[in-house]
Amino acid sequence: MNIFKKFIFGLIFSLSSLSFADVSLSGNIALTSDYVWRGMTQNAGDPSVSGGFDLEDDSGFYLGVWAANVSADDDDTVAGSGSMELDGYLGYSGSFNDDAGYDIGYIAYTYPNYDSWDFEELYLTFDFYGVYVSYAAGMDSAADYYEVGYGIDAGPGAFSISYGDYDGMGSNYLIGYDWSVGDFTLGFYFADFDADAGPSSDQDGGYFTISY
C-alpha cells in the first residue's frame, strides 16, 4: 500500500493549499453486472459495487478516491475469493472553447492484500466535438494504454464507442448507451477484448450498470 500512502500525503498537502469556498464535493455509487475495465473483466463475470468521492476546485484542479470489489485468489490470479480495488487520483482539467478541452492527471491503482498488483499511471486526454483521445503512461514497469472514442446524444440518452490498445496485453472496443433518469444513469454496454496472448485469453460480452 505504499503507493496509496504517498497519494494520501499528497492529498493532504493539496487540500491545505485550496480555498474551501471554491471547492465542491461530490459522490457516486454504482452497481454493475460485470466490472469490465479496458475490455477485461475484473470480477470474474460477477456483479460489482463501486463508489467514490471527488473534490473539485473552481480552477479545474480535482482529486478523489474510488473503490470497487474485484475477484482474486491467494495466488494472485483473477477469479475466486473477494478482494478490493482502491484508487486515488488527482489532476487538472480545462477547456480551449465550448467544444474542446483537456484533462491531465495521476492515478494510483491499489489492491489491499495484493500489493503485487499495485501500479501507477500518468494520463492525458483531449476531447473535441465529441471525439476524445487518451493516453495513459504506465509508471515503472506498468504498461502504456491508448484509447480513442466518440460520443453523441441519441434520443433520451447518449451513444458512445471506443477503441483501446494496452501494450503487451491486447486491444479492446466498447459500444455503449447511457440513459439518464433523474439522478440515476442506466448504462448498457458490449465489450470485446482481443488478447495478445491468443484467442484462448480473449473476452467479450454485454453488461449493464446503474449509477447514482
CATH-derived topology? Porin
* Uncertain residue segments: 76-80
Q: Numbering strands along the chain, what is their spatial order in the largest sheet?
A: 1-4-5-6-7-8-9-10-11-12-13-14
The major pleated sheet works out as:
12 strands, antiparallel, barrel
Please give a handful of descriptors for the protein shown.
mainly beta, two-stranded antiparallel sheet, 12-stranded antiparallel barrel, 1 helix, Porin, about 210 residues
Description of the structure:
The chain has 212 residues and is mainly beta. The chain is 7% helix and 63% strand. Strand 10 and strand 11 (157-166) form a beta hairpin. The radius of gyration is 18 Å and the shape is globular.
Sequence-ordered SSE layout with sheet pairings:
Blueprint: H1 2-16, E1 23-32, E2 36-37, E3 40-41, E4 48-57, E5 61-71, E6 82-97, E7 100-110, E8 119-128, E9 131-138, E10 145-154, E11 157-166, E12 170-181, E13 184-195, E14 203-211
Antiparallel strand pairs: 1-4, 1-14, 2-3, 4-5, 5-6, 6-7, 7-8, 8-9, 9-10, 10-11, 11-12, 12-13, 13-14
What is this structure, in a nutshell?
The chain is mainly beta. It contains one helix and 14 strands.
